[in-house]
Amino acid sequence: MLVARDVPDKYQQLRLRLEIEQGRLLSWGHSFGLLQEESEEEDASRISIPEQVRYMVQGYIEPLWQKVLHFTAEAPSFVPRDKREETPSVYHGGMARRFRLDRMYAKARQGTIKFKDRINWAYWQMDKLEDLVECMRHVNGSVIALAEVKTQQEIQETVKATLMGLLSLQDTVNGLKELVVAVEEKHLDNRSSQMPLGEPNDLLLGLANLKKMRLQIGHDKNDGSLQSDLKIQPERVWPMNKMKYPSPQRQDATLDGKEGFWVEYKDYSSSEQIAGPTKDEIERHIVRELAALLISKLPSSFRVARCVGYYEEAGSFGLVFEKHAAHADQTIIPLSHCLSLETQMPSLGERIALAQGIVQAVFQLHVVGWLHKGLRPANILLFEDHNGGIAYDKSYISGFEDARPVAQPNLTEEAHSRLLNDDWYRHPDIQTVKPAHREFQYCMRYDLYSLGILLVEIALWKPVLDIQSNVGPGDIKSFILSHNTQCLQRIQFAFGRTYAEIVMNCLDPGEEMDDHTQMDSYIYYFEKLVVKPMTQMSVD
Fold it and tell me: Is the pLDDT of residue 462 over 60?
């Protein structure tokens, strides 16, 4: 049903709800080891089901199965499957890989139900589909409630990660609207339930609305009113040379005479001879969309300062950011400066909070469809706290001069070596010292690599180039991951095994995190292998 063809718009929300419920059911089955082949070795994490619970589960599942059989039997129209055709179910394939369902689907195709052809959706009645979705929702709630509290929470986390993957793949305004409605209905479900399934996915809803707004802006990018709302007259902005720690791409500024702002510059070339996006493309597809994204109400965990607009002057665009009210009169302190003060190492708790904030921000930026392309300590901004120290738990990601939407690979610009040490934070494929670096299209995994280097620096509290004097940017990855160098052991000693594993997952992710081919899988495993374990770290 999830791969049916020609689904009318009015059914999209129901199909999304069906996908959500399928994800919940699969997560439950996976937790109990029910998706394993009989020939597979026993999984230590597999939960045995007591006999009395098994009978109760069977009582819930059997009516649902009969309803599915009856529902599909009534579909009168089948059409041949076109192998070249993309599946309309945006993360159906991702779940199949995640839960290893390929063999299960193969068996189903050999059975009495013929799944070799695609069902034509047009003849199904909405009331019957609503009844099926409601039945599946009730069954899920019932069987999950039979599990232990810890298992219920694990199922909820798996479903949330799956929904993040679904969100990352939705690339239409209408699709995101339907996703928001479907998830909101699921929230009402959870809030009215007594099952301890974790906090409502307010972050998921916030990111879905944020991405929906960004896509809407993409459709309206030629709207003059939108441009007038975002574009600031240059005379309203007055850059100041007051920064204690100056940067070539960042300046303190006043807006309409008021302090508490700073400007970040996005250069463009006026020459038509230079390859890359034109000035007009940079403004319409990058600067304006980025300003519109960051001018919105962002989730509190989206650690990016609010943008109030942009202006154009002297061969560059200036993005104007507003300091948080608590830091309006305080100096911006880049993480690069803090790392140079090795004698003033913050506490373990402060460094964990710093790492958690950066990880969450990068993850959420990827979920809404943006690449940062410049993650390094100079672009992690900190401010003083009320006691005159540094508020490490209130970090902000900055430095969007090279950022672009994931869906706009044609806007990729050649990496700028503004600083000699930037290559230390670039993936080995795209380091500018390598002649072949232009052959690689920037992807999320490259941001993930930069994140891993940042996490190493936070753990050891020193710049990456000072970790080993005789190692260069091209060798730093192998140096960190090698068992012979004991670098990972030092990280594990400082922060624990979980943190060291997060670093490994960032620097050397598996094939399931190849965002070129499996966007939903990348988001799912980013959340599972990096975000979740990092969020759970704490200092007792």
Answer: yes
Angle subtended at Cα 484 by Cα 483 and Cα 490, rounded to the nearest 5 degrees: 65
Which amino acid is residue 208, in one-letter code?
A: A
Q: Which residues contact 7 (CB under 8 A, 6 or more apart)?
A: 15, 88, 121
What are 250's strand-pairing partners?
Answer: 247, 264
Contact yes or no for 377/453 (Cβ under 8 A): no
Q: Which of 228 and 368 is assigned the larger pLDDT?
A: 368
* Cα 33 from Cα 213, distance rounded (Å): 40
Q: State which amino acid sits at residue 81.
A: R
Architecture of domain 224-535: Orthogonal Bundle (1.10)
The CA distance from 467 to 54, in Å, is 55
* Cβ count near 73 (within 10 Å): 9
Instruction: Give the C-alpha separation, 322 to 129, whole Å.
Output: 48
Backbone phi, then psi, for 223, in 5-degree steps? -70, 120
Residue 142's contacts (CB-CB under 8 Å, 6 or more residues apart) are 60
Can you point out the beta strands (E) in 185-243?
A: 237-240
Top-confidence residue, 59 or 260: 260
CA angle 186, 191, 196 (to 5 degrees): 100
H or E segment to which residue 399 belongs? none
As beta bridge partners, residue 213 has none
The full DSSP string for 314-346 is TTEEEEEEE--GGGTTS--EEHHHHHH-GGGPP
Residue position matching structure tokens 């479903």 = 159
**How far is Cα 364 from Cα 527, in angstroms, rounded to an integer?**
10
Interval 374-413: pLDDT, tens:
999 999 999 987 777 899 999 999 999 888 888 776 666 6
Note the pLDDT of residue 79: 47
Specify the DSSP element, H or E, that contains 235.
none
Helices (H), 257-401: 279-281, 288-294, 335-340, 348-367
Q: Which of 192, 185, 167, 166 is nearest to 14 (CA)?
A: 185
For 97, phi and psi rounded to 5 degrees? -70, -40
Can you give the residue ranges of every domain in the chain? 9-200, 224-535
How many other CB atoms sit within 10 Å of the CB of residue 140?
A: 23
Residues 75, 502: contact at Cβ < 8 Å?
no
Contact 270, 315 (CB under 8 A): yes
